[in-house]
Amino acid sequence: MSRQIRKHQHIKNPEPFSEILHAWLKSNEDKTLGGLSAVFAEKSFAIIFLLLMALPALPIPTGGITHVTELIAMLVCLELIVGRRVIWLPKKWLEVDVGKVLSAKAIGRLIAVIRWFEKFSRRRLGGLLTLRPVLSLIGLVVLLFTVAAFVAPPFSGLDTLPALGVVIISLALILEDMAFLVAGVLIGCTGIALEISAGAALYSGFTHLF
């Protein structure tokens, strides 16, 4: 499987990313965050964002684990911002098993989402997405959206759009498509705007009551 993924990274017409990720998630290989970093190499930042933020982005029960995944994503964001090429995480976090965090239902929905985006994917200005200043800026944007998802009130659904923005930005990096990056930023910003509007409405309601 690892050999297959390395081949995917170096040929012009690779197997669809959705199939490679699905096979890895269903395999008996090491599916911890540490194992992911070792297997997916230069795409590991984007893939970690994708997997960690899939839970709050998908309309499925999460059991409260999203705050943990969001905290890990924030640390990875900071590393991308400062220009690290290899992900560093505390040993305890490296041992987080992605295969166990994502239920079979979540994996199925995530793969379906990725396949839908692959239908429209083109390599549009993909070279820009490998530049260090651009990656640092993307890390800052992802951090902003992740914090927005983290502070959203529980069970409000307001974390969905910021998290979905991160998922789409991750796919932009993986599929090397600038159009997806723009879409992800717009969706994430919409989510933050809704969160601010909801907060303002709630504050206004309290001030009228008291």
Determine the oligomeric state from the structure.
single chain
- In the predicted model, the low-confidence regions spanning at least 5 consecutive residues are 1-12
Number of strands: 0
Estimate percent helicity. Answer: over 70%
* Termini separation: 62 Å
Q: What is the overall number of helices?
A: 11
Task: Round the Cα radius of gyration to an integer and report it.
Answer: 17 Å
How many structurally independent domains? 1
Major β-sheet, in short? none
State the order of secondary-structure elements, H for helix, E for strand: HHHHHHHHHHH
Outline the structure in words.
The protein has helices at 2-8, 17-26, 33-40, 44-57, 66-81, 91-94, 98-101, 104-120, 132-151, 160-175, 178-209. The longest helix is centred in the C-terminal third of the chain and has 32 residues, at 178-209. The chain contains eleven helices and no strands. The chain has 210 residues and is an all-alpha fold. Helix 4 (44-57) packs antiparallel against helix 5 (66-81) and helix 4 packs antiparallel against helix 10 (160-175). It has one domain. It is globular.
